[in-house]
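User: Sequence recovery, please. Input:
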């Protein structure tokens, strides 16, 4: 686990979109001029490169900030605190909430840094005989103060705030939980089954899901590129092939070491440009068939004719939120642990994207 977190350090800053962004024609030229052998295949690569996946952070890990950035480290508890937490959990599962609460309180006294002690003590106050949401919230806040990047603390706080009728504040905590963990299962289940639970608009996701096997390597000099059944993912696959294999990109390519926001930005941009060009060409061809000698296709018409995902990417790009989308729907979905070690500018991008396109206030 420690080795993986070191690999994630290149994610600590979001690169700005450069003025000399490469487009589909540029990537094609790199492919044609390359000393390597690229092959456009009509089915998924038989030897696909394994996607980078690093999972979710464990609740027992703590965020530490030093001069060289952020990292997640194991939280070590002494034997006495561990014993108290285990006993408390057994009592909680048996629904002996008052007794469990006493044990959790003892655990926090034995180790004031015991985040889970505060969080689960809060649960005994919220769900036990006390049914005291205000007291539970106080404990949740203590846990959050020790590590604001732990998503579960914000989710628990949202539950207490909703019980207190403070819905807008609860929604704020949900946004924070998703900022640090975009794959938070409980949140997505609630948005799907109880729309408006936090007074939010219906949630519409625009997932980025290129086909399995879009990139493969037969040997060190032969690379397969698969753009999907109808070539709809060719822009992304082509860009990823170039970044993964061409020497001029090797210093910026994440490879097996984690995620590169710069690489994803370049390849998502190339995918969007490719889809825009293909749609524009299709509309122009349709005009020719209808007898128009010199077709004129407006940008608004192109965007209107694109798929929902492509339209969303175009809107996000125009709004200057493409990094937020990438961090939330690409990196955040495959490597949610990475978001815990992001710098504040990256987290603000994720927060901004969530507020604009995911958890949006109903009023």
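Assistant: Recovered sequence (363 residues):
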């Amino acid at each position: 686990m420690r080795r993986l977190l070191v690999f994630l350090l290149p994610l600590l800053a979001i690169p700005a979109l450069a003025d000399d962004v490469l487009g589909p024609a540029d990537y094609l030229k790199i492919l044609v001029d390359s000393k390597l052998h690229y092959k456009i295949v009509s089915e998924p690569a038989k030897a696909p490169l394994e996607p980078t996946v690093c999972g979710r952070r464990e609740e027992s890990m703590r965020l530490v900030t030093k001069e060289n950035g952020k990292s997640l480290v194991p939280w070590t508890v002494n034997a006495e605190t561990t014993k108290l937490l285990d006993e408390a959990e057994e009592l909680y599962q048996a629904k002996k909430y008052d007794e469990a609460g006493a044990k959790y309180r003892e655990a926090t006294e034995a180790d004031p840094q015991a985040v889970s002690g505060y969080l689960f003590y809060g649960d005994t106050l919220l769900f036990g005989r006390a049914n005291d949401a205000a007291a539970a919230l106080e404990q949740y806040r203590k846990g959050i103060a020790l590590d604001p990047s732990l998503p579960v603390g914000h989710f628990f706080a949202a539950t207490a705030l909703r019980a207190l009728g403070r819905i807008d504040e609860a929604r704020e905590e949900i946004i924070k939980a998703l900022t640090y963990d975009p794959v938070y299962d409980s949140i997505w289940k609630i948005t799907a089954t109880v729309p408006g639970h936090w007074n939010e608009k219906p949630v519409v996701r625009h997932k980025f899901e290129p086909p399995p096997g879009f990139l493969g390597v037969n040997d060190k000099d032969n690379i397969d590129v698969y753009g999907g059944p109808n070539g709809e993912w060719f822009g992304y696959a082509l860009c990823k092939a170039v970044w993964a294999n061409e020497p001029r990109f090797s210093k910026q390519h994440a490879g097996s070491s984690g995620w590169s926001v710069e690489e994803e930005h370049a390849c998502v941009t190339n995918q969007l440009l490719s889809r825009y060009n293909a749609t524009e060409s299709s509309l122009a061809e349709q005009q020719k068939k209808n007898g128009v000698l010199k077709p004129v296709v407006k940008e608004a018409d192109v965007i209107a004719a694109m798929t929902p995902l492509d339209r969303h990417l175009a809107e996000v790009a125009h709004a200057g939120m493409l990094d937020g989308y990438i961090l939330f729907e690409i990196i955040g979905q495959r490597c949610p642990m990475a978001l815990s070690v992001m710098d504040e500018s990256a987290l603000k991008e994720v927060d901004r994207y969530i507020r604009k396109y995911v958890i949006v206030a109903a009023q």
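The first strand starts at residue 37 and ends at 41.
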